[in-house]
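Here is the promised in-class demo. Please do not try to memorize the tokens; focus on the logic of going from shape to residues.
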């Protein structure tokens, strides 16, 4: 299934994530298997240190590059205009590709680290992202882990609006303010860690709904994400799980089930963009 980005490009859902997927044979095999199953959206990042293996997995899949949607991200140490341009060049070289379908700023510079310079750093980085589009080495650009306060200066100065914001999103972390801001500005929301790093899989509410549908807890959570018009990024190195996480369109959740999942207790499993120090 494809969603449509504000740029007009289709983006497949779900996406296949590669965070913490070990570089080398494990990553190559996982990416190749994911594409064989039917995933055409592969998400990586310079931080993951596996872009070479992601590229090799793509090549071994035999799927034409033009049929795939590949995302990478510029890491925090490479923020700023010139460094972002060089970082993208390196990612493309490591992937063995001529272009990226989507390139994201991995984390916003924050006031805790940079004081009143944070906004300027984010804007400067975004200028480089826009140049990458102009040079046609990147088709679409976006953000990751940007909340409303981080987005505002970028949006105010942008010549090309962000198409995506990739944030931690799952039952217990609804991110309502950020999602509202994204939708107001035509930005597609992607969910990283949609399963709450696996900690939501034993929740009794989710387990009960899964049993009713004859599906796994993971499938129920991912279906909940999709029905909230958010694009989930799923990851596994196990063939059975890779296949299971792709089977999300053979059932749907009713309004009561959606509400029950949305009412789970608040929980955050990743870092908050305002407090990170990396």
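The designed amino acids, position by position:
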């Amino acid at each position: 299934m494809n969603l449509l980005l504000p740029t007009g490009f289709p983006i497949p859902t779900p996406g296949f994530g590669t965070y913490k997927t070990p570089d080398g044979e494990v990553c190559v095999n996982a990416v190749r298997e994911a594409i064989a199953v039917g995933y055409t959206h592969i998400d990586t990042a310079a931080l993951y240190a596996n872009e070479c293996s992601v590229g090799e997995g793509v090549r071994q899949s035999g799927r034409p590059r033009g049929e795939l949607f590949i995302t990478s991200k510029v890491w925090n140490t490479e923020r700023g205009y010139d460094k972002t341009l060089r970082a993208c060049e390196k990612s493309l070289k490591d992937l063995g590709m001529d272009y990226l379908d989507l390139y994201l700023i991995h984390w916003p510079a924050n006031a805790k680290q940079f004081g009143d310079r944070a906004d300027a750093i984010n804007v400067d980085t975004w200028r480089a992202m826009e140049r990458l589009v102009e040079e046609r080495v990147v088709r679409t650009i976006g953000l990751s882990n940007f909340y409303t306060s981080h987005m505002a200066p970028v949006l105010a100065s942008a010549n090309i609006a962000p198409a995506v914001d990739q944030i931690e999103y799952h039952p217990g972390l609804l991110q309502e303010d950020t999602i509202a801001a994204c939708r107001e500005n035509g930005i597609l929301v992607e969910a990283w860690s949609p399963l709450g790093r696996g900690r939501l899989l034993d929740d009794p509410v989710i387990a009960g709904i899964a049993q009713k549908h004859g599906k796994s807890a993971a499938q129920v959570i991912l279906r909940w994400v999709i029905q909230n018009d958010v694009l989930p990024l799923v990851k596994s190195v196990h063939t059975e799980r890779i296949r299971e996480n792709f089977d999300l369109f053979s059932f749907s959740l009713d309004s009561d089930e959606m509400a029950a999942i949305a009412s789970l207790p608040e929980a955050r499993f990743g870092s908050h963009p305002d407090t990170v120090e990396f």
